[in-house]
Amino acid sequence: MKNPVQGAQVVGRVASLLRLVGRKPEGSSIAGLVRESGLTRPTVHRLLASLAAEGLLDHDARSGNWILGPEIFLLGSVAAARFPFEDLARPSLRRLAEETGESAFYSIRRGQETVCVLREEGSFPVRSFVLHEGVRFPLGVASAGTAIMAFLPDEEQETILSGWDQHAGSFAAGHRMDVVRRNLERTRLHGFAVNPGLVLEGSWGMGAAVFDQLGRPVGALSLTGIEPRFRPERQEFLGKLLMEEAHRISSTLSSTLTGR
């Protein structure tokens, strides 16, 4: 039994490093990967070198960062046919960006996290750079994660909240449990989530959940920008647009999956 366990452990470590590198377009330094992965520097270096030899990672000699390699692009291109996010969400993102001037995003649920998979830049010249493709947040963190978590079954929410500090990790300080509970309640009441600069001061966001044919929240549309663009008097307007587009995607998703 020893070798299978060791093999599974290596796979888990490799997957973790790939996710960490993929969080940012500029990649990550080896020091950052050691810190975030919790692995020793020799282990991280050995795994990075092996991944680079397979074309899954590259080492940027200029910045010193490790970045995703060409094999990841090829694998992603093949996988994209199974996950048609571009066709599903891009039209909604474009409408949201054009009507609001804010940057629009589509995130999906992966386990206990949200992952941003698409973005559309708005015309407003001052932007928030908290969110981009590949960024992951724990459920309940940021507007997309709040929008999704708010419509999970009560018992599933309580399971997450019962281990909140561990679940939220470095975001727990800005997302106290009492604040999160209030945000979840407001989201259920209004239908959209508001993140009042909890991830990064001055960077606000709003999100609305996308549901599958069984009514389960599987993704979320969101808008991000600077605080003055998300004043209370504008939130109703933005929330209405988000919910309309989220409903449109939910209907399309349901029709596609049921064959209608």
TrEMBL record:
Matches recorded under InterPro entries: GAF-like_dom_sf, HTH_MetabolicPath_Reg, Tscrpt_reg_IclR_C, Tscrpt_reg_IclR_N, WH-like_DNA-bd_sf, WH_DNA-bd_sf
Domain HTH iclR-type stretches: 8-70
Top-rank taxon, per record: Bacteria
Domain spans labelled IclR-ED: 71-255
GO biological process: one example: negative regulation of DNA-templated transcription
Annotated GO MF terms: DNA binding; DNA-binding transcription factor activity
PROSITE patterns: HTH_ICLR, ICLR_ED
Entries under SMART domains matching the protein: HTH_ICLR (SM00346)
A Pfam family of this chain: IclR_C
Keyword Transmembrane helix attached: no
UniProt keyword terms in alphabetical order: DNA-binding, Transcription, Transcription regulation
Protein name in UniProt: IclR family transcriptional regulator
